[in-house]
Amino acid sequence: MINKEFFQALDELEREYRIPKESMVESIEAGMASAYKKEYGFTSPISVRLNEEKMTYKVYAHKLVVEEVEDEDTQICLEDAQYIDKKYKVGDVVIEDITPKDFSRIAAQTAKQVILQRINDIKKDMVLNEMSRRQGEILSAIVRRKEGNTVFVEISGTQMEGVMMQSDQVPTETYNVNDVIKVYVKKIRESMRGGAQVVVSRSSAGFVRRMFENEVPEIKAGLVKIVSIVREAGFRTKLSVKSEDPNIDAVGSCIGNKGVRVNNIIAELGGSEKIDVVEYCDDSIEYIARALSPAQVLLVSINEEEKNAKVIVPDEKLSLAIGRNGQNARLAAKLTGWKIDVKPYSTLSASEDQDAE
């Protein structure tokens, strides 16, 4: 079982997988020691040593030299120890060669198992390290199975499994086995079994942010910056952008010629999600008005201390400003960081009439 080819194979593993040869040898020795104990019912401490020069392996038992033996599996009396070598004294450890002649087959199987396990472990580590570096990126994946409300995908080209919890799924989408989808690598976390798990998402605002970064060259080049982005997946996304260069139209860059850029992103999101791109403004009043796009805003009054804003819109635009179930106003508030109260113009007129009386 120990031959020149065996150690050459360890050299190749070191080159291919960057597993230190010494580490591999230590793992094989530990595995063989465990296999020996199991096969022969040995309970005392033992060690296995591989010798590359002699192409051999040896199994050694370790026993402590004592005056009076209390545990025959781990101790040896001084008289017996000195029978082996007169130099032994109490407190020394006697190392005895107990290599069996019929252990080769078991040793070979154990070495093979250890090597395969180490290769699998190192492959997983390599993929996880790669995933850690690609956190925050969008990757292609194949839906492999569904368990309850959780979708499991295989990240293309890695054989790494990604988990997409219900909160990371878009409520308007359906995921079927073998569907090819794009996912956002959200984070790497510890799984319940002690390993690592890749958490992916399609509902995250980061997913849309990364799509704009990939689709819009001006964002990738740093000429246009995304200041803030908020999302209710499947329904609406709002993002504010700005550019330090007065010659660059930040909003126009994101929309693209005839809307081609933003439409490409909408198509990837399923085609029904609306995206509002607004230009960031340091002036809070103007920024709040822009955030309520596509609604027209007539008046914004703010309370700086309470971070409240009252917004007046044309009566016929009230439903557009508020949005379905309050969605447009809610996202505008999240985007700007202000609490926004939207009112129709008629309420302002009525208030003025009462003041006049």
What does the radius of gyration come to? 34 Å
State the helical fraction.
Answer: 25-40%
Count of separate DSSP helical elements:
12
Shape: elongated
Alpha-beta content class? alpha/beta
What is the topological layout?
Elements: H1 4-17, H2 21-40, E1 46-51, E2 56-66, E3 75-77, H3 78-84, E4 93-97, H4 104-133, E5 138-147, E6 150-155, E7 160-164, E8 180-190, E9 196-201, H5 205-215, H6 217-220, E10 225-232, E11 236-242, H7 250-255, H8 260-268, E12 274-279, H9 284-291, E13 299-303, E14 308-313, H10 318-322, H11 327-336, E15 339-344, H12 345-356
Parallel strand pairs: 2-3, 7-9, 11-12, 14-15
Antiparallel strand pairs: 1-2, 2-4, 5-6, 5-8, 6-7, 8-9, 10-11, 13-14
Helix pairs in contact: 2-4, 5-8, 9-11
